[in-house]
Design brief:
four-stranded antiparallel β-sheet, 3 domains, three-stranded antiparallel β-sheet, 400 residues
Length: 400
Amino acid sequence: MILGALIDSGLDPKVLTTHLSKLPLSGYQVEVSREQRGPIAGTRVNVRVEDEEQPPRSAREIRELIGGSRLPAPVKKMSLAVMQRLAEAEGHLHQHPPEEAHFHEVGAVDSIVDMVGACAGLHLLEIDRVVASPLPMGRGFVCCQHGMLPLPAPATMALLEGVPVYDSGQQRELVTPTAAAILTTITSEFGGFPQMRVGRVGYGVGEHPESHPPNLLRLVLGRTSTAMLQERLLLMETSIDDMNPELYGHLMERLLRAGALDINVLPAQMKKNRPGQLLRVLLSEGLRDTVLQILFSETPSFGVRIQEVERISLPRRAIRVQTPYGRLPVKVAANPEGDSTLAPEYDACQRAARRHQVPLRQVYEEAIYRARERLHKTDAGRRRRGDTATRVRKDEAEEK
């Protein structure tokens, strides 16, 4: 249904399947069709798998599958974060490490396509913020390879800890573990409509044709009406004075891989006059339990402080510029005064500096120069097109 809503909102199915073909995965077809649910028409996506009996896959196997693909780096990162959410939920339920988690239905080809396809769709549509409504919970039982399970499924409930939900009154599964993992990874806030200018509306069609209300997932695409983005996030912090400094690098790497937005380690003077560190992690609400588990397992902390914060940020996009050191990605943000703030991607610049044996600062300056040059040409072209349009309108007025 998530894939259907993305396609119904403007995602080209051919472009999506091209991206999915970059996964070393075969034996499936993505079928796209228009279907009616009640008074509303939408798009239904069905992943047709050639071999219905799928072998269990471990979290490590799926991670290697995604990591070894030719997918764009942002799609890989988001897909791996979704996979990590599922692995930690399954590991918690079955009392074993996340890497040893084995998936049956979730590990099947169609579920991998759902997860990676959703992340690719968000990337292709350039969606940089997701706000979701509270999620509906179904009732009853579902039969799977683990046996008969109550609804919502235990894995779904583990993934939705801290997420607002409500009882729909329907006797069927409404939120699957795969959907719960996707939503809690990509969503920055659960609540009502954010302030935005509505663009396109799409509907993803579900399997059940006769359900009430109609079995649809609605996706509303829009742009913020101001030059700045506002979002509600969580800020976690803990004070540490007895941790080996060498371990902070691994901790930060694991937090970023899980989807943390920002991490700071600040010097702090603690009780009994001991010097220590204040660790602060900024994250979306859906990652609350994942980050807590990492902090308690990777640090000697006995407690974590959590507060809700509002982050205001500039909308940004990425461009690639040609330099003497290769094509380099540069983030471009437009500030309220209309000027551009440029930030070359550190990792790409570092690799280029090592490859060409030049100072990193030199690569940075070249990337910024080329980006400003490109933006200047683009703005000049827009102004010329605007002047032409003005002259045409003026000539038309004089003729009249």
